[in-house]
């Protein structure tokens, strides 16, 4: 997810001067779309006829810079990646705002891809502290998924301390660990018009087709053990956001060419587990279907990062599709 952080960081660093939006409307618990706002009030829109068709989900080809037909041929058949054998790997904690390495951060590394839900590091977990160059060495089955937790606390850049929030990531194969400072979280929530409750979490990540290309026109839905968590357009409730031209924004209702999604004010369930599903239409005039489904731990006053690819045969058993 380094690309996620770089896009967000560049948007903030450039000082785009964007005005955060708080769109009004009545949420549909079966859809993650956002209804337009009038005069800042929550309004029930009158039925004006059939709704416009959902745009077809496409994939963004970085080589050509064009949208192409998404490949879902592996839907429901692929399994989680397996590794190439146990080896030592050097990981680097990077501040997503400025891409600089961050030292003195405690990182809990979970080679089984199952970050603990109580914040502890037991069993196969290894606790490491990043050096001044942001690096730490761990051992795992390289090529397979792993998970990690950046423990909230002070990290250092060029010897200067800075407070960082807790970050959880699962299904990762990258050698980059995402570190997010408190000041950056505050800047992002302000940019999005989010009044983030510290008892809730922030969820963000990417989407992918069978070839690993970012999905365009896809939407996110989230669930806990009791069912779907409804979205609202109110700034202090559970609110989805997408990206526009590489910049996080409250206005888009589906992914752009970055394939990135986000949800603010995610309520933390008793078991800490949130199921993330990606939905979209795969053909003109067809209704949305579930394209991807993964489960991940959500954390209060922190950020959870999760890329969701096509639905796996060995994925969560309670997926909607």
Largest sheet: 9 strands, mixed
What structural class do you assign from the helix and strand content?
mainly beta
Q: Which strand order does the major sheet show?
A: 5-4-7-10-21-12-18-16-17
Residue fraction in strands? 25-35%
Q: What ranges have pLDDT less than 50 throughout 5 or more consecutive residues?
A: 1-51
What level of helicity do the residues show? under 10%
Shape: globular
Helix count, per DSSP? Answer: 2
Average pLDDT number: 86
Secondary-structure blueprint of this entry?
Layout: H1 2-13, E1 58-61, E2 66-69, E3 86-95, E4 106-110, E5 126-129, E6 135-141, E7 146-150, E8 153-157, E9 160-164, E10 166-172, E11 176-179, H2 182-192, E12 201-205, E13 214-216, E14 219-224, E15 227-228, E16 239-244, E17 247-249, E18 261-266, E19 273-280, E20 289-297, E21 302-305
Parallel strand pairs: 3-11, 10-21, 12-21
Antiparallel strand pairs: 1-2, 1-13, 3-6, 4-5, 4-7, 7-10, 8-9, 12-18, 14-15, 14-19, 16-17, 16-18, 19-20
């Amino acid at each position: 997810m380094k690309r996620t952080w770089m896009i967000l960081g560049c948007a903030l660093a450039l000082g785009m001067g964007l005005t955060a939006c708080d769109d009004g409307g009545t949420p549909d618990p079966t859809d993650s779309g956002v209804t337009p706002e009038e005069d800042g009030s929550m309004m029930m829109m009158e039925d004006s006829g059939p709704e416009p068709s959902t745009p077809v989900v496409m994939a963004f080809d970085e080589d050509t810079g064009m949208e192409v037909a998404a490949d879902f041929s592996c839907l429901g058949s692929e399994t989680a990646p397996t590794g190439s054998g146990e080896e030592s790997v050097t990981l680097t904690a990077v501040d997503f705002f400025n891409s600089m390495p961050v030292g003195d951060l405690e990182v809990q590394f979970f080679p089984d891809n199952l970050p603990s839900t109580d914040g502890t590091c037991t069993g196969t977990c290894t606790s490491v502290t990043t050096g001044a160059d942001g690096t730490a060495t761990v051992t795992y089955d390289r090529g397979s998924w792993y998970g990690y937790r950046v423990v909230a606390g002070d990290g250092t850049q060029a010897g200067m301390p800075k407070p960082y929030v807790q970050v959880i990531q699962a299904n990762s194969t990258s050698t980059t660990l995402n570190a997010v400072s408190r000041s950056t979280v505050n800047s992002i929530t302000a940019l999005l018009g989010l009044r983030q409750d510290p008892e809730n979490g922030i969820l963000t990540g990417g989407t992918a087709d069978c070839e690993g290309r970012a999905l365009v026109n896809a939407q996110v839905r989230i669930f806990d053990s009791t069912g779907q968590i409804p979205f609202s357009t109110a700034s202090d409730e559970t609110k989805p956001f997408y990206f526009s031209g590489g910049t996080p924004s409250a206005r888009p209702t589906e992914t752009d060419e970055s394939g990135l999604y986000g949800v603010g004010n995610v309520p933390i369930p008793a078991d800490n587990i949130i199921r993330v599903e990606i939905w979209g239409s795969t053909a003109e005039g067809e209704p949305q279907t579930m394209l991807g489904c993964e489960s991940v731990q959500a954390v209060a006053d922190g950020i959870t990062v999760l890329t969701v690819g096509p639905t796996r045969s060995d994925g969560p058993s309670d997926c909607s599709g």
